[in-house]
Structures are given as structure tokens and as C-alpha cells.
Amino acid sequence: MRNTASGSLKQGADLRAPGYANIFVLGDAGDLQPPQAVNADTQTRHLMTQLHSYFGGEPIKPYVFDPEKTQMALTIGRDRGTGQIGSWQPWSLLIWFLKGRHLGTNNAGEYAKGDAGTMGKAWPK
Ligand SMILES: Cc1cc2nc3c(=O)[nH]c(=O)nc-3n(C[C@H](O)[C@H](O)[C@H](O)COP(=O)(O)OP(=O)(O)OC[C@H]3O[C@@H](n4cnc5c(N)ncnc54)[C@H](O)[C@@H]3O)c2cc1C
Fold first, then answer.
1. Where exactly are the structural domains of the chain?
2. Which is it for the CA torsion 15, 57, 21, 18, positive or negative?
3. How far is the CA of 58 from the centre of ligand 1 (A)?
4. Separation CA 19–CA 61 (nearest Å)
5. Which of 15, 41, 68, 88 has the most crowded CB, counting CB atoms within 10 A?
6. Residue whose CA is closest, atom 37 of ligand 1?
7. Which residues make Cβ contacts (< 8 Å) with residue 113, sequence separation at least 6?
8. Tens digit of pLDDT per residue, the chain (125 long)?
């Protein structure tokens, strides 16, 4: 059940633990993508949209992602940052604006209530 190289749990294409019909693996625990909140978020969003089919006994859609796509934002001090989105290095000011200003605390209320995920984006209904 573990990926022997990374130590993470194996994830099938539909985010199930291979060999288990009713166990799903999401986020850092899994071996599909690097351990980043952005990946945990998209995996969770995908499964949320498939739960209706799952509980109805229907097939669920595979989780599709681009393994080459890098998306990372790092703050530096109070007002600078760096990162990578695909092949683009975002401007320091943009990283500060999107992340460094609040470090997610501006969305903490919605997050704690279960109304939103990463970057305050509402969960799919
Ligand atoms: C300093 C730092 C900076 C980061 N910056 C970024 C960033 O800029 N961008 C980004 O995308 N990602 C970033 N990450 C990574 C991001 O935090 C993780 O990818 C994300 O939190 C993974 O979410 P998760 O729900 O899969 O796991 P986690 O957030 O680790 O949640 C797992 C939870 O399970 C709990 N748990 C563990 N074992 C048990 C048990 N036996 N019983 C019950 N509960 C248990 C843990 O306490 C934890 O609360 C950063 C991580 C760190 C440490």
C-alpha cells in the first residue's frame, strides 16, 4: 500500500487506495503529487464532485492532473516573495499580494467553518 520510494500511500487514478473500493487517499499522505496544499485542495475538490456517483454505486471519474506543472509561492520576509507557476516566475509583489499579506488568515473563518479551501475558494456543492 506504500510507495517504497517516497513512503507515501499509493493512490490509484481515481484516488482510491489500490485494491480497496472504499478507501480514498488525499493530500500529503498520497504519492500522486508533491506534498503541497494546492494539490491536497484539488484532490479533495475532485473527490467531492464524485461522492454522489460513489454513493450511488456508479463509476467515478479519474483525477486528472499535469505532473509537469509546478505551482509554488514562497514568502520572503514581510513584503517580498518568489515562486513558480509553470514556467513563469511570478513577481515578488504579486506573491506578497496573494499570500504574504495575510498568509491565509483572512480566510481562516471560512476555512474553519468548512465553507472554503485553499485561498478561500468555496468548496464545490
Ligand atoms: C512550513 C510549511 C509551509 C508550507 N507552505 C506551503 C505553500 O506555500 N503552498 C503549498 O501548497 N503547500 C505548502 N505547505 C504544504 C501544506 O501545508 C501541505 O501540503 C498540506 O497541509 C497538506 O494537507 P493534508 O490535509 O494532506 O495534510 P495535513 O495538513 O498534514 O493534515 C493531516 C492532519 O492529520 C492529522 N493526523 C496525523 N496523524 C493522525 C492520526 N493518527 N489520527 C488523527 N489525525 C492525525 C495531523 O495532525 C494533521 O492535522 C507547507 C508546509 C509547511 C510545513
1. 1-65, 70-114
2. negative
3. 31
4. 17
5. 15
6. 29
7. none
8. 899 999 999 999 999 999 999 999 999 999 999 999 999 999 999 999 999 999 999 999 999 999 888 889 999 999 999 999 989 999 999 999 999 999 989 999 998 999 998 878 899 88
